[in-house]
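With this grant's support, we have settled on a layout for protein records. An illustrative entry appears below exactly as we store it:
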Amino acid sequence: MPAHPVRTWTCEELLRGHATKKYALIIVNQPIRRDLLERAWQAVDIRLCADGGANRLFDVDHENRYLPDLIKGDLDSIRPDVQAHYASLNVPIKQDKGVYATDLMKCIQEVPEDHALVLLGGLSGRVDQTVHTMSMLHKLEREIYVLDKQSMAWVLRPGQHEIQIDHNTMGQTCGILPVGIDSAHVKTKGLQWDVDWDTSLDGNLSTSNHLLPEEPVVWIETSKPILWTVEIR
């Protein structure tokens, strides 16, 4: 592969609840881990709910500690009591009945380009929704992360990457997935089972790989976009 400049990823800061850059949080309509919500909420400066994501927020926040900046979607999933509750607290609620964009896509349209995107939920639940999330990660030319109940994931574009590892907030298991491509050549350093191979859904896959407890950085080089996923604590 031709030489590329190395990109350093410091998004482990999201798991510690503070950030050195601008992030926007979008809560989707999937179950929420309360502790993960708290950390992500503290790390971002814009917070949105994608339609039924407001139900998920309401169900874990009985103290009204977390009020989103906007609830947006076609509003066919938000419960009437939840919509009335947030309306009474002056949370803006915007209905968009467009049928060729999902509620997630409608929320992304509201986020300034200088903000990285953080999706809370999106990799569990219905299979079609999970595939849609992976599609958004793959095709959007924006910095976008998914925080789910067990994993954090984002796309690594062609080139070299150094991923900062925080072993206090990241678990042991990780994976490199060729989603949305035919195949990619991938090389790694810093994993228990480093690879230097072509990866594809009908060929080699690095799943259930492990971070090394003594390694603070994982280095990955890829010829095409791949999905990096790591377990979170």
User: Anything to note?
Assistant: The chain has six helices and 15 strands. Residues 178 and 226 are 5 Å apart (CA to CA). The mean pLDDT is 94. The two ends are 34 Å apart (CA to CA).
